[in-house]
Amino acid sequence: MTNEPHYFIAIPLQERHKEYYSKWQFNLKEELPYKQWVNKEDLHITLKFLGSVESNKLKQLLNYLNVLKKTNKFKIATGSVGFFGNPKKPRVLWAGVEKTSALAALNHDVEDVSVSAGFEKDRRSFSPHITLAKKWNGEEVSMSGLKEQYDERLELTVNQVVVYRIFPARTPKYEVVAAYELKGEVD
């Protein structure tokens, strides 16, 4: 195990999205026994988890990520609750994110830049989502009906990509290390 800080690359949420999904969390806490509920300020869409990173490698990556400034802003829809894992004890609860061609292209660019900077290619397919809670801590429950109850769509303008450093013992846990503004206007 290394003592180097851990990082990831993500799309930050706008304030109205943080507020909205924070309300979902507040209501769902009454129904679902998760150990960890993501702090409102930490809500995001992960593009690439980097893990432990040495400072020289991080500097190189941050420089390479400047290419993202050539990417055009775009819009996606978020919403509709879902989960990963056993439907009766799901390990992760999330809000869905529309996987548009623009979002897939951005993820591909982030992956390519990361590999160029010496990071391993992600072997899992990109499944965009906003983690709301994780680490199930209770009896089995029925998740049926949640998708219908939590299904309102919100439009999100993707105008920035950030690199976050993880501080496990703090709340909020994530701190922006670098931000890359995307270009252009969105209709």
From TrEMBL:
EC identifiers of the protein: 3.1.4.58
InterPro entries per UniProt: Cyclic_Pdiesterase (IPR009097), Phosphoesterase_HXTX (IPR014051), RNA_CPDase (IPR004175)
TM spans (from-to): none
Keywords annotated in UniProt: Hydrolase, Ligase
A GO term, aspect molecular function: ligase activity
Domain Phosphoesterase HXTX: residue ranges: 12-94, 101-165
Chain span(s) of sequence motif HXTX 1: 44-47
SUPFAM superfamilies: LigT-like
Active site: H44 (proton donor), H129 (proton acceptor)
Domain of life: Bacteria
Reaction equations catalysed: a 3'-end 2',3'-cyclophospho-ribonucleotide-RNA + H2O = a 3'-end 2'-phospho-ribonucleotide-RNA + H(+)
Motif (HXTX 2) on chain: 129-132
NCBIfam families: 2_5_ligase
Function per UniProt: Hydrolyzes RNA 2',3'-cyclic phosphodiester to an RNA 2'-phosphomonoester.
Family matches, as PANTHER family: RNA 2',3'-CYCLIC PHOSPHODIESTERASE
Family of this protein: Belongs to the 2H phosphoesterase superfamily. ThpR family.
Protein known as: RNA 2',3'-cyclic phosphodiesterase
